[in-house]
Amino acid sequence: MTDAAPAVRAAGAAEPEEVEGVEAVGGLWADGWAQLRRRPLFWVSSALIVVLLLMALFPSLFTSVDPRAADLSLSGADPSPDAIFGRDLQGRDIYARAIHGAAPTLTVGLLASLGTVVVGAIAGLVAGFRSGWSDGLISRIAEIFAGLPFILGGIVILTTFNRPGQIVGEVRIVTQVVLTIVVLSWPLAMRIMRAAALEATQQDYVKAARALGAGPWRIVTRHILPNTLAPVLVFATIQFGVFIGAEAALSFLGIGLRDPVVSWGVMISEAQERVADIPQSLFFPAAFLVVAVLAFVMLGDAVRDAFDPRGR
Fold this sequence. Notes:
Order of helices and strands: HHHHHHHHHHH
Shape: elongated
Helix content: over 70%
Number of domains: 1
Number of strands: 0
CATH class: Mainly Alpha
Structural class: mainly alpha
Radius of gyration: 24 Å
């Protein structure tokens, strides 16, 4: 009975630390959300993103014109009531194509962000929590991928799977572009998660959980993961906009999405040869692309400022 008393007292002393750690996480998220709601940048970027999402999910709310309907007799026509943004080289309505181009572009950005965060977060958690040889191995692998230039890596990967001029299905090419972005971008997410996990493992509530006999899975899911989500959330939000631009860059080079897929990057790629004659075919999809990238980057900045107490 005497020997068990210190253990009982130690356990009782450790439990408040564990609860305190969980409550601190809840307090951080609540405080961050309160800070976020007071930032005009958050509401402006959110409003733009809502409009973009409506365009992607319900394009019929904005136009009833078929984006693939071509009329060569109207090739390069100037803006008019029938086509407010004018027509491209094939006589297609640029406004309708810009509206319908939101879905593939945002889909690539969303899937690439999710894939990058999932792969990078898992690798970073393992590296930061396990440390030792696991940390060294994962870090060296990440350094190899981080050393690959994005454009060069994208050209090598996508041209390896698709020969020039090869007809590729829409789902297949979207999948290939998403996987290419994930392969070339996950090391940064891994580094962010690894640094956050290393910091979290040194906190008292994690040490208390270990002293109470909690297993690795419980420690990671209940204590480490909630405390490391904020920086990864900020990264994912900003990278969403970056990946939208990456899709456009790959499509512009002719190795990303391609016709018959309608995306802003594809529209810009198709307009490059006749931009002097039909400037509207380049200007309007580029404007949509810039607005989308800025919206997600602004949202990421607002989230970062709200959920990073050290930056206030």
